[in-house]
Amino acid sequence: MSAEFLSSQAAARRLGISVPSLYEWLARSDCGEFIVRGQPFTIEYLQGGARGQGRIQIEVSEIERLREAMRVRPQAIRCRQRPQQVQHFPGITVPLGRPD
């Protein structure tokens, strides 16, 4: 089974970002500091070359996984309940009012 790989330019185009932004995302992902919608996210990619200084290639499935993590899903508006009026005083065990 062969996976289809994209260059950094093609991956950035699919994500709708610039190539330098993609490189920054990859660097943050390597350090564990990349956050998508409040959740830590790791991007898996290949970098060729003898010492890992070659061209970056990212699988199409990884780009799709990243796009799905960035997707905004509308949520139903939660109705807040009105605060309840406290009718009692905790810790007081005697009847309240003026003494007779």
Tell me about this structure:
The protein has 100 residues and is an alpha+beta fold. It contains three helices and five strands; from the N terminus they run E-H-H-E-E-E-E-H. Strand 4 and strand 5 form a beta hairpin. The longest helix has 13 residues, at 19-31.
One letter per element, helices H and strands E, the order comes to EHHEEEEH
Give Rg in angstroms.
27 Å
Low-confidence stretches: none
Beta strands, count: 5
Number of helices: 3
Largest beta sheet: strand ordering: 1-5-4
Estimated share of beta-strand residues:
5-15%
Mean pLDDT figure:
87
Return the structural class.
alpha+beta
Query: What kind of sheet is the major sheet?
Result: 3 strands, antiparallel
Distance between the termini: 91 Å
Task: Give me the oligomer status.
Answer: single chain
Share of helix among residues?
25-40%
Which outline best applies? Answer: rod-shaped
Write the layout of secondary structure elements.
Layout: E1 5-7, H1 8-15, H2 19-31, E2 35-36, E3 39-40, E4 46-47, E5 56-59, H3 60-70
Antiparallel strand pairs: 1-5, 2-3, 4-5
Helix pairs in contact: 1-2
List its salient traits.
two-stranded antiparallel sheet; 3 helices; 3-stranded antiparallel β-sheet; 100 residues; 13% strand; alpha+beta; single chain; rod-shaped; 5 strands
